[in-house]
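Re: beginner question about structure tokens

> Can someone show what the tokenized structure looks like for a real chain? I only ever see the sequence side.

Sure, here's an example I had lying around. Input first:
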Amino acid sequence: MHRLLRTFTALTAVTALGLTAGCSADSGAKGKERTAAEAGPTTDAARKAPQSAFWVDPESSAARQVEQWEQEGRTQDAQTLKRISEQPMAVWPAGDDPAPDVKAAVDGAEQAGRTAVLVAYNIPHRDCGQHSAGGAQSPDFYRQWIDEFAGTIGDRSAVVVLEPDAIAHIVDGCTPAEYHSERYSLLSEAIERLKRQPRVKVYLDAGNPGWIDQPDKLTEPLTQAGIARADGFSLNVSNFQSDETIKTYGRSLSGTIGGKHFVMDTSRNGKGPLAGDREDAWCNPPGRGLGTPPTDKTGDALLDAALWIKRPGDSDGPCRGGPAAGQWWPDYALGLARNAKAA
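And the corresponding structure tokens:
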């Protein structure tokens, strides 16, 4: 669901956390993230910060906010926000040409000796017309987009999370039936194209446990979309389910699709999901916190990595006082950092 396009407003101060305006009901929706096209050389601090194999974007909105607050004398807030800026986060290439953002990420990661995490999010009829509506204007355009995405990675190391929400929106009925066959074909072709690159791992998105509550409902759709050729599936993208809930769900789903591995988004799940109506809990919920830092050392045979796929601090959409989907919201980011899960 809600994802970004390119984040146009970088350091805007907006209203604080606990506002309660409503949003369209959607238990799996997200908000799109800032891209990496303008990322500069990887700094020494960014190289040293993460205890993981993944690349830190030295020019993220969080990093720029830290710099601004330091200049303004907000040193304590700046220090707290480093809990975000010094961690690796996924890059969501935006617009009709993914190459600049992909290139910035894989070049930066290669320079730092790390792996870029990328999200391919441009499927036609994306997000059922909601906050992150859009996507490629035709199947052929999507094929060209994926080809450019994959070709730009080249022989560099990358993890690609493929089309958040695309399968779950088939299962929940949000994507009209007339588009199902097309979507299965495009996802299957995208997996095949990305896997031609020698150092790419592909994880086809499978929603989250609070959205499709019975994992076996995903089995046939994932199979039709070519999960057998992918490295696995992703869970909890832009959502708030707890680590243990995700792991239990992931193991159950894996058992129905040949033991496939999975990755999970822990960017904002440190306090779990907001209590109450789950259909109102996905969009900028108050009181949430950063979750498990990104790592490929999970201690779980099926779980390949905990990742920050959603970029913490990027809005889910214009609800609860937030800016448009994918735009940077420093007050929300600071709240996430203050509520970070204890290490």
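Each token stands for a local structural state, so reading them left to right follows the chain. The radius of gyration is 18 Å.
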